[in-house]
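Weekly structure sync - notes
Attendees: PM, LS, DV (DV joined late)
Agenda: review two folding runs queued last week.

Item 1: First target. Sequence and structure tokens pasted below for the record.
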Amino acid sequence: MGCIRGVPPRGDSGGGIGRCYPRCSSCDPPVERLGGVPLLFRNFENFKRALDLVPSENHGLKFCLGCWSEMGEDVVEVLRHFGGDNIIYVHFRDVVGTVPSFHETFIDDNSSNFNEYEVAKTLKEIGFSGVMTPDHVPALEGDTEWEFGSISGRTFTVGYLKGLLKGVNEQTHD
């Protein structure tokens, strides 16, 4: 955790932002060790400790919903704990199951680990003002693939997120 103690003070003086991020994808889940190498950022306690070590406006979470969900965490509770000021970036991705047995799914899948509407509503409630993007999406047969799924899958996810955010914003104005 030495790098965590050294990076935020430099960011404070130069305006940079350090991020803690769980290693994620279907071949790199948040596990204790991967290929014999210990992974520090794999559970709530380790993230909490990292942020508590050096309080700074330039030290926060790159919050992958899929990774937190794979850990078996209640993502809404974790979002509420860290709050909007400690979350810099949100990857909006959904999975079914937890480590070691999970798979990525579309964000509207009723069998996924979390309710995406509750997550979007919570992000608004905690004052999150960072970047939110879709992350990995399932590949669709016959579609053009790209690094994190399919073009159509990503297009669906962007449209779904826009509608989700519009619904959350309109609800809070009523």
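Item 2: Second target, run right after the first with the same settings.
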Amino acid sequence: MDLVGNKNIRQAWDQLAAMHGSKTAVVFEDAVGNISEYSYAEFNGEINRAANLFLSLGIEKGDRVATQLNNCPEFLISWFGLAKIGAITVPINAQCLRNECEYIIQRNCSKSLGIAIMQAA
């Protein structure tokens, strides 16, 4: 699949990490003011870790996987991690209630996977 020139997401992130390694790629400030920064190399490493986790959990190319996260680096990491293995992210609004999530998952996801991300306050 050609997304950026002749590259797919995996190739694009690997190239960005190689070209810009220690430069800042993502800066995130949470609701209480804590700031997280990732370099291109660090962010690509986290994306690769997520991709490998998804593979180890049986997620395969073409699978649709629901994610329900607030705005956070983990959302981007999971999105790009799934894209690197050819899976499709089905983002669910963090404010959706259980029955709304169930409706979305039943109609849009080929595999069900629950991941909780706890953030310290």
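Discussion on item 2: The first strand starts at residue 24 and ends at 29.
Action: LS to circulate a short write-up before next sync.
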